Structures are given as C-alpha cells and as structure tokens.
Write the structure tokens for this entry.
Amino acid sequence: MQDFFRNTDMYSWILLVSIFSGLGLAAFLGKYTWGRKFKRDAVAEDELKIVLGATLSLFGLLIGFILSFAIGGYNTRVAAEENEAIAVGNAFQRTTLLQESHQGQAKQILQDYLTLRIQFFDAEDDAHRAQTRMESIRMQTRMWTLISKIAKNDPNPVIATALNACNELYTAQQKTMASWRHQIPSAAWAILIFFGLCSNFLIGYNIRGSSGRNTLIFVIPAVTALALFMIAEIDVPGKGLIHVTPDNLKAVQVTVASGGLMP
C-alpha cells in the first residue's frame, strides 16, 4: 500500500478524478434526461437497449484494442532496459581485455555510467531524467574516447571487441529513448473518451428509480474510470503507478560490486 501512494503522483490522481467526474456527469445527465421525458413506449425502450448494448460492446472492444497498444509500449520499454543491462555487462567484461593501466579508469567510467542509467529509470520528473540522460551520454563519450585512443595506439582484434561494446552502450540507450514515448495517439484517446461518455450517458438514460437515488448510477463510471486510468498509467513512460524499474541494471551493479564481471 505504501508503494501505491509513493508511485502514484499528483498527475495520476488528477487524471483519475477528472475521468471519473466526466463519466459520472455524463451518466447523471443521461438520467436527468430520462426524468424530463413525459412518455416512453415499449418500442423505443427496445431500440434503446439495442443501441446501448451495441455501444457498450464497441466500447469494450476499443478498450481492449487500445490497452494492447499500451501494453506493447510498456513491454518495449522493459526490453530496452534489459538490453541496456546486457550492453553494460558486456562492456564490463570487455574491459578485462585492456591493459591493467587502463582497466581501472574504464571500470570507473562504466560504474558511473551504470549509476546514471539507473537514476534515469528511477527519476521522478522529466527534467531530472533529461539531465541524467545527458550526463550518461557524456560518460559514454568518455568511454568511447578512452577505448578509441587505445585502439589507435595499438590496433588489434581484441581492442575492436571493446570498441564494439562501447558502441552497444550507445545503441542500447538510443533504443530506450526511442521507446520512451506515448504509444496511444491523441486521436485514439479522443475516440475512447467519446465512447466512454456516450456509453455512460446511455446507461444513465436507462436507469430507473426516483431522482434522489443516484448511488448506483456512479458504479459504471467508476469502473470505466479505473480501466481508462490503468491504460493511461501503462502508456505514460517513466512515471505513474505502472512504470519500468531498472531491476536488471541494478542486478548488474550488484554483480560488478561483487567482482562477478571482473577478473
């Protein structure tokens, strides 16, 4: 429970309340519209139920379709973090091929780089994340400069593998940044919200009972709001309740600290 409140920022709470308020208002307006009607015949009732069933079915399919987009983006970010961990681990192993006079410096640069990449995934705001990314790029450039200088002084196939490992660091980080975006376009969100408003309006329009009994009318808006909130939390990169954690990078850090990747 503590992790829930720690990982759910103000943006998430505002989003959840806004979605629920909009859907709840649509349902209440639907019931108010029903209360204003003077007469409803049986044919109109049957037709309305058909429209409601079709709308709810399309809305459910749309939620599932867009949820698959969000989960796909989340899986891509998870895979990118795994690739970064593999690239950093390979780079640590390649440093063992360097001369002892250069191993210490290369290892220190990689440790600083690994720390920055962990901070990138753990950052709570975009400004800190952007700053950490730029620092990690500078650290990766330092590593490349060191290895390329060694390669120029003593070109051999062994040093070439170290250069490839440095290049993999850059490639892995770029793949992470390519996946660090919203997967659901704004047009899809507009359609999803439109269907949500229409569905809850029709549900409210079909509800019977006195005007003072409005408790049950908010059940479907609450459930729908939670579904849309979950999709939004999965789709947003780097923050919110559902986000990628650098577990693999931290595992590499522990392994390096214990000497598992070094001679």
Notes: The two ends are 42 Å apart (CA to CA). Residues 17 and 229 are 9 Å apart (CA to CA).
